[in-house]
């Protein structure tokens, strides 16, 4: 991110210092989904408390705070969650054809048993009653609110040096049963959390050749859906910032 140029163009007394902004972008660009590099080192409660509190300070539609945080530390519970994963994972492999199936089977897509802590973030869609400010018409906004909590936790964890891996390959009912989650509560994310030997520079699916990162200029439209305009100065900035991010650098002068 070109934070120094942005600061010159739009000075704001509310902007963070350069160092603080760089730290935020560093957390964003170096966050990874972690599956295979967990260390057995325990996560101290004070660190766990900080990342859970970061999650709780996420935005939520109508301030409904629909989340709960189910902290999983028992090996028995982790094994139950892992069995639910294994069943869905075997089914998932059959959904890919040809070479993709073989590649899929080689991917490691969870670290449920190896990670010292699991955290299931849920959504209670009834938490504040049927009518919620902001959820009156688009009913999925409460689910998205819990996703915001996931992302807050993920970034805070990165800053703490903790890896997080999101596991979603479950039949929802199996995950609910493994964790005793009642029917009215929606599991949003099962997260594997722990210290790691290293963070990969790039998404593992990118390195494995599964998919590339999409270019920003293909994703940004102006005024109407599908309307691109490569002459807009913003496009050149986006290309430059994405190139910098791709090189693993969080800031360019
Ligand atoms: C909603 C959601 C569900 C995901 N589910 C899984 C999963 O079941 N297993 C897995 O290995 N990664 C899962 N991921 C991680 C993505 O594969 C990962 O974010 C993506 O490949 C980009 O890599 P990065 O997070 O390291 O940047 C999930 C991510 C999201 C946002």
Please provide a written account of the structure.
- With 253 residues, the protein is of the alpha+beta class.
- The protein starts with a helix and ends in a 7-residue tail after the last helix.
- The longest helix is centred in the N-terminal third of the chain and has 19 residues.
- The protein is globular.
- The chain has 9 helices and 4 strands.
- It has a 4-stranded antiparallel sheet, with helices on both faces.
- Helix 2 crosses helix 6 and helix 3 runs antiparallel to helix 6.
- It folds into 2 domains: 171 residues, NADH Oxidase, CATH 3.40.109.10; 41 residues, no CATH class.
- The site of flavin mononucleotide (FMN) has 11 residues, from strand 3.
Number of domains: 2
Name the CATH superfamily classification of the largest domain.
NADH Oxidase
Hetero groups in this structure are: flavin mononucleotide
In N-to-C order, the SSE pattern is: HHHEHHEHEHEHH
Mean pLDDT, all residues: 94
User: Uncertain runs with pLDDT below 50, 5 residues or more?
Assistant: 249-253
What does the main sheet amount to?
A: 4 strands, antiparallel
Number of helices, counting only DSSP H or I runs of 4 residues or more = 9
Terminal Cα span: 9 Å
The assigned CATH architecture of the largest domain is: 3-Layer(aba) Sandwich
Report strand %.
Answer: 5-15%
Provide the spatial order of strands within the biggest beta sheet.
1-2-4-3
Report the CATH C-level class of the largest domain: Alpha Beta
Principal-axes geometry comes out as globular
Radius of gyration, CA atoms, in whole angstroms: 20 Å
CATH third-level topology of the largest domain: NADH Oxidase
SS elements, strand count: 4
* Global structural class: alpha+beta
Helix content: 40-55%
